[in-house]
């Protein structure tokens, strides 16, 4: 897939990050950018067959996406406390009734309907309590325009939520790799032979991509210094350059996996459509994207 330019005008630090990762610079530039390090890697769009429609626990699965859901409900309700109560109403319903036979299509479409219902239920709850207390009842106005399947707000929050999950997954990959390398080092079994046969550690993938994203244009030496403080070990510019393309392809793969979970028919074509709809094309820029 050769990603076209992002058409969605809304942005966030994470989506801006994906865009910066796709920008190009001359190969002889002294600044460190992911595109100046070739080494394109392969991303499989539909490598997982697990989807939201097959989740054993509807409530448990939906909890993954609380941040975008809460952000939207705050817009709809105009209050954090009411948004949290509406969320509790929705989760309680999912615990009792599951998907109620509506596990079809895109998860974000299913959720927006649930969020609208939960917001209305919370508004009714507020009015009922006011009546019981003998207070004057003021009809609660809800901003339901933002709670539509294709609203700019919902698409933006949903995109940010998927990006955040991909970042956390990349951080877990880094932790697993770091734990693995530490275990190998501590074992100290036939150190010379082990050192020759052991593949280079990829224990900085999250930190490298984060630093390059947050400090675009800085030299590899400066980036290495920043990462060394986090890793609490020496980090060379060469190591940063080696791990960066690995980090980019890993992040793109994790993002594709996350998107596939939210679709009923998660084939490559459907995932590509969703990537375009959410404006995430540049996260895959320069990579070999395959079915």
From TrEMBL:
Region (Disordered): 1-49
Compositionally skewed regions (Low complexity) per UniProt: 1-13, 28-41
Superkingdom of the source species: Bacteria
The protein's name: Uncharacterized protein
Natural source organism: Rhodopirellula bahusiensis
